[in-house]
């Protein structure tokens, strides 16, 4: 009797297994069968929102399903990010973040989520060029001259950022560390007020998105010295990179990444990855991004995971060196 029951149990398990497997496979093959939510953990109108909406439109058109962008800001992006971390791992709730996803663990040891364990990397979508700019009265026309000036006047050159732990803060602190100079950080509430402060002469310099600074640069209200990325920016091809201009090893790319909750089936992650990569390769989308100084990246989930690990390590070291702490 015992052996008969055991055999019956095995047979039932096999039957149920073979019944459930096609359902799961079919669900993944049919994805998406309903609208997809794409969470942006910041306010509308910023770079993350722009990138998310462009990609959502293209993916939605290809899938024949709506990809709805939802802005869920607060907590320095942690509220919206945690919402996705706690969502069902079925591909119907996704997250779009910028490079601060890798900064936050360096300054917040009590995050409600683990950036490497609670998310499935989907794809690095694009990168947006940033620029080192100074007030025209600053007697430095190159990065080398700015470094020499800072060394001759330690703790006198003031730079602004959108707040402690912001992208602009980390980008300048990496520059300061590699150039071996001393600067004074002045935090503001957002990058807009920082640019206003540099233009007025209240502070001397900033690192910010090149597309947003370009009108002031062309009008002579700011002087651009270099871009921050590993390569020159297509929007300002004559500007050298900071590394080219005298700080070997410097590279800051303000990237935008797409995530799913951890545990999302690999087949669904791949389907999303494939569609986003196709969208990023279209000339029409590349042209629209180029207007804002954005360049498409793409690649595999595995490439994104490896890149994130390096970013977390890199910016953790910058935070420790600079003593960066949240407000």
Structural class: alpha/beta
CATH top level assignment of the largest domain: Alpha Beta
- Measured distance between first and last alpha carbons: 69 Å
Total DSSP E strands: 11
Uncertain segments = 1-16
Strand numbers in spatial order across the main sheet: 2-1-3-10-4-11
What share of residues are in beta strands? 15-25%
Helix segment tally: 11
Q: Given the C-alpha coordinates, what overall shape results?
A: globular
Stated plainly, the CATH topology of the largest domain is called: D-Maltodextrin-Binding Protein, domain 2
The CATH architecture of the largest domain can be named as 3-Layer(aba) Sandwich
Number of domains: 2
CATH homologous superfamily label of the largest domain: Bordetella uptake gene, domain 1
Mean pLDDT: 90
| Biggest beta-sheet profile | 6 strands, mixed
Q: Can you write the helix and strand succession as a string?
A: HEHEHEHEEHEHEHEHEEHHEH
| Oligomeric state of shown chains | single chain
Radius of gyration: 23 Å
Describe the fold and architecture.
This protein has 327 residues and is α/β, with parallel strands linked by helices. The chain has two domains: 36-127 and 253-322, D-Maltodextrin-Binding Protein, domain 2 (3-Layer(aba) Sandwich), CATH 3.40.190; 130-227, 3-Layer(aba) Sandwich (D-Maltodextrin-Binding Protein, domain 2), CATH 3.40.190. The chain is built from eleven helices and eleven strands. The chain has helices at residues 2-29, 47-63, 78-85, 100-107, 143-152, 167-179, 191-200, 210-218, 266-280, 283-290, 301-322; strands spanning 36-40, 67-71, 93-98, 119-128, 130-134, 158-161, 184-187, 205-209, 223-227, 254-261, 294-296. The strands form two sheets. The chain has a six-stranded mixed sheet with strand order 2-1-3-10-4-11, with helices on both faces. A five-stranded mixed sheet has the order 7-6-8-5-9. β6 (158-161), α6 (167-179) and β7 (184-187) form a beta-alpha-beta unit. α2 (47-63) packs across α9. The longest helix has 28 residues, at 2-29. The protein is globular. The N and C termini lie far apart (69 Å). Residues 1-16 have low confidence and may be disordered.
């Amino acid at each position: 009797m015992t052996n008969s029951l055991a055999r019956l149990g095995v047979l039932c398990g096999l039957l149920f297994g073979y019944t459930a497997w096609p359902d799961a496979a079919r669900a993944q093959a049919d994805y998406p069968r309903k609208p997809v939510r794409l969470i942006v953990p910041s306010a509308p109108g910023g770079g993350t929102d722009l990138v998310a909406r462009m990609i959502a439109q293209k993916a939605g058109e290809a899938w024949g399903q709506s990809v709805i962008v939802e802005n869920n800001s607060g907590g320095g992006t942690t509220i919206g990010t945690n919402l996705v971390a706690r969502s069902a791992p079925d591909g119907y709730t996704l997250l779009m973040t910028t490079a601060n996803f890798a900064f936050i663990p360096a300054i917040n040891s009590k995050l409600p989520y683990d950036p490497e364990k609670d998310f499935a990397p989907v794809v690095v979508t694009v990168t947006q060029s940033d620029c080192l700019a100074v007030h025209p009265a600053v007697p430095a026309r190159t990065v080398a001259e700015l470094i020499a000036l800072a060394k001759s006047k330690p703790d006198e050159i003031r730079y602004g950022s959108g707040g402690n732990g912001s992208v602009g803060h980390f980008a300048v602190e990496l520059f300061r560390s590699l150039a071996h100079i001393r600067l004074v950080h002045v935090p503001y509430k957002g990058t807009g007020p920082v640019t206003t402060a540099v233009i007025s002469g209240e502070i001397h310099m900033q690192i910010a998105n090149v597309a947003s600074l370009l009108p002031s640069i062309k009008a002579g209200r700011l002087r651009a010295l270099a871009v921050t990325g590993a390569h020159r920016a297509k929007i300002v091809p004559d500007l050298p990179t900071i590394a080219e201009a005298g700080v070997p090893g410097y590279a800051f790319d303000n990237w935008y990444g797409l995530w799913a909750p951890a545990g999302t089936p690999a087949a669904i992650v791949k389907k999303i990855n494939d569609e986003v990569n196709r969208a990023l390769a279209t000339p029409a989308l590349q042209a629209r991004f180029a207007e804002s100084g954005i360049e498409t990246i793409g690649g595999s989930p595995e490439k994104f995971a490896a890149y994130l690990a390096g970013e977390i390590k890199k910016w953790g070291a910058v935070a420790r060196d600079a003593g960066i702490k949240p407000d």
